[in-house]
Amino acid sequence: MAPIDAGAAALSTAAPSPVRRFVGWLRGLPPGVLFWGALTLLIVFCLVFAPALAPYDPARQNLLRRFAEPSALHWLGTDHLGRDVLSRLLYGGRFSVSITAITLGLSVVIGVLVGVISARAGGWVDEFLMRLVDLLISFPDVIVALFLIAILGPGYGTLIVALTVHAWTPFARMMRGLALDLNRRDFVKAAEILNCSRRFIVLRHIIPNAIRPITAIALLRFGHKLIVVGGLSFLGLGVQPPMSDWGSMLAESRRYMERAPMLVIAPGVAIFVTALAVTTLGQSLDPGNRRPGGGSRGMLRRRKSRSGGREG
Amino acid sequence: MALLEVRNLTVAFAGQPAPVLDEVDLSIEPRETVALVGESGSGKSLTALSVMRLLPRGASVQSGSILFEGQDVLAMPPRRMNRLRGGEIAMLFQQPISMLDPTATVGSQVAEAIRLHTGLSGKAAWNRVVELFRDVGIPAPEVRARSYAHQFSGGMAQRVMIAAALAGGPRLLIADEPTTALDVTVQLQILQLLARERDARGLATLLISHDLAVVAALADRIMVLYAGRVVEEGTRRDILESPEHPYTRALVRASLLRAEADGSLFTIRGTLSRDEVGRTGCRFLPRCATADALNLHATCGAHEPERSCCGGAHHHVRCCASGHRGAAAAGPSTAVAAPTQVATPPPRAPIVALQAVTKRYLLGGGLSVRPLDGIDLEIREREVVGLVGESGCGKSTLARVLLHMTPASGGKITIAGHDFARLNGRSLPALHRSTQLIFQDPVAALDPKMTLGESLGAVLLHNQAGGATDRRAAIIEMLRKVGLPPAFYERLPRQCSGGQLQRAVIARALLMRPRVLICDEPTSALDASICAQILNLLRQLRDTEDLTMLVISHGLRVVRHLCDRVAVMYMGELVEIAETEALFRNPAHPYTQALIAASLLEEHGLANRMGQVQGEPPSPLNPPAGCRFHTRCRLADDHCTEAHPTLDQVMGAHAVRCWHWQAALASAAAAMTSAPAGQPDHVWA
Question: Contact A3/B40, CB-based, under 8 Å?
Fold first, then answer.
């Protein structure tokens, strides 16, 4: 019932050019987003253009140059079969990151659909879908994945299926909560009494207003999923030789850790940096993590400023 | 020495060149109440927050000084500051419930304030809590101190906050819109409580409000803030009786919500925008009618007027044109709302008919509540009916039932030929084409991700044939009708002010070409100056679009001007219904009388002459036997506790549900005529 801020009025009426609008949009982003977003984009760029960027064929062996130290020829050295680590890292990342991205993409789509249906339908549909979510969530994701890979056999498609089966559940739960909340909002009620179709309400009102927190959560989970993919590859359940990926690179090279530490450090750092970049990006996009005044802040600063806030 | 002395206070947000508070001077003597008045965005809350050193992130004091009892507040070390806040200076906020920790009992929270500021602890502190709760009028204080925030109504929570504020034994109380979120009846009680405690404890008070009526009831001196500048200050009489600044004059006039000669309400054009804050020249110039009338745009635009003395010793104004008072009062204002349709309108067919409409919610465990209990109401075509009552009386439930957002549990409803008994999924869209709703909060009623054009386009997309270009033309035409230029088609809600958004919401509803428009508190989220604009718009649309309206409100101010008839609702029942003028002249139900007294503070002040309701409505789970109002009624006797009165016609179209309406009528008439002299009755111009 507070009087609405009349001061927010009167922006300039002239429509700015698209470029200026883009720059304005960039400036409006929280500070963390720009840095971590750029790093994420850089990683994606390197992986997409791996064939052009990689100095060698990742599978070409050169037993004469095994365990080469990092040098101008081999920036990150070579492994136990004399393969170029940088090339294998670039190609291997394509596998790990694409599996994780596709898995999360599918999970978001399924989760959003299930969540919206659950929230809008209510009744037994809601009950059934949410109990299904509870059931799946009660198993650890790695166990579910191992079980499915054991049945379907290892492979790219299998890995995606095995991970997605579990990964959509948190998105469904979250989407249901957001949709229930949005259902109660006046603009959705207004759309209903203005005879807007259910499809319109879901596609134009509910999903667009929920997609930002969902995206943030998807990015937050990216790191976790990347590590799970790495773990499954490490166990030999992911990509099969001679293809590479970060998890299997770790697995192969752990025996030579003392002789050539770079073999372990390189894929480890790649997983870590990628997970960190995407997760932090998610965190800085997460509206729950931000206060009206400005960009994202650490938990500590938030607590501190809050405790000094109110006086009796 | 002044208790609080603010000099040349300038506050700016980082990254914005123009300060949001510009050289504000403010002094409060001990035991004095100073009010800061202004629209949202004028900087009045920032002034209070600066004193407490609680400015939001990004805002900082650029220059100036704040002295409390001679000590520099801005230079105080944090520990001293913590003693000051909540100790010598206490603060009250607008949303009391959100100020309380939901996980701890309210008593323990007040006890903590006592422990911090007085050193009492344990049993002694608890006893003090109970004592304070008793002082602020919380019933059964020992029990209520052990309750949690969610168990309190807004009014009771504000009493808790007042108790907490008093706990530290403050010298100065800062009250930031302390009653804005409350019902009018509760608002009156809280204002009376504040006045009583202030006088009993000798508190100085800084009162912040956008509502002049609230300010007039409490303040000794008033300062009017516009776009970060104090444009006028003076005693209450100076400001209310002889305002000098065109803005103050306009604000006083707009706040009264009384009809001008042509039947419309006085409004201030435009809105206060952020761009005003750093402009050269007078900041009010774009909205100033005096400058227009005297052709002063060149002078006023060139340099900002200096603060100058006028009239009384404390009366200062910042205006080049002060002294030209006559100009703004171009249209003579008539004191009483002039009924525009003096000629008796021909009887028209009823378009909305409700018979014994009931809504019941089962809560399980055999419990049920009836937000609507046997509502009979007829609205004739092109009639505007007001529906008034405290929050929780069922008025919003009625709106939802009328739009079939929730089905009625019993009774007969017919709207524009749609019989609700025969309504199904297929005929619902037709009902919605004939009946539409205006929401209370326009910000919530529009999708923040859609431009106004998209939001309005959705209506046409789903309700009528036609291509995209036709739709665009129709929307722009409708925007024009509600007073918005075509540029708003492309705007997002966050780029518009509240008043502009409410216009867009009205335009959206009108695109359905409805015959009945239900307005659920259409102005309660808006500033006073904007409120009048929206009411004028609704009135004008009633005539141009042939609308029938049901206007729901928690106070009587809004409906007085707009409505032909007014129905008063209490605990799910209509208790009085009459033509607007008849209701205001001869309110026959004690509840209506109390609502009128509380709604029209500017006429009745804090004095309690018309009779007042005590406390808050009883629990709807267990409505009182007999007359539902008897627990709060000053006229109740044994008969009222046993027998339930019916809604009877008493004088023509005037119906009332009360056993003692004749006594009530007589006492109200006596109170009206015997107004003691010196009351702030007609302080207002």
Answer: yes
Tell me what pLDDT residue A131 has.
94
Of B54, B273, B447, the CB nearest to A187: B447
Predicted pLDDT at A306: 34
Residue A127: CB partners within 8 Å, gap ≥ 6? none
CB spacing of B494 vs A9 below 8 angstroms = no
> What ipTM score was computed for the predicted complex, to two decimals?
0.81
- A-B C-beta contacts closer than 8 Å: 161
The beta-carbon neighbor of B85 closest among A8, A10, A311 is A311
Q: Does the residue A293 lie in any domain?
A: yes
Rounded CA separation B223/B239 (Å): 8
pLDDT at position B683 is 53
Dihedral of alpha carbons B633, B638, B641, B645, sign: negative
- Which chain B residue shows the shortest CA-CA distance from A302? B57
User: Quick check: is A284 in a domain?
Assistant: yes
The whole-model pTM stands at 0.82
Domain with A289, as residue range(s), is 95-311
Put simply, the answer to whether A8 touches B449 (Cβ < 8 Å) is no
| Interchain pair A312, B94: CB under 8 A | no
Consecutive H or E run containing B372: strand B367-380
Is the pLDDT at B539 greater than 80? The verdict is: yes
Instruction: Quote the pLDDT of residue A288.
Output: 55
In a domain, A283, yes or no: yes
pLDDT at residue A291, as a whole number: 42
Confidence of residue A64 (pLDDT cuts 50, 70, 90): confident
Contact B167 A312 (CB under 8 A): yes
| pLDDT score of B91 more than 70 | yes
Domain assignment of residue A22, yes or no: no
Number of domains in chain A: 1
Measure the CA–CA gap between B523 and B440, rounded to whole angstroms: 7
3-state secondary structure of B169: coil
Residue A189 DSSP one-character state: H
Give tens-digit pLDDT for B133-188. 999 988 888 888 999 988 888 888 999 999 999 998 899 999 998 888 888 888 88
Q: Which residues of A touch B446 (CB under 8 A)?
A: 187, 190
* CATH code of A176's domain: 1.10.3720.10
- Partner residue opposite A195 with nearest CB, options B52, B429, B490: B429
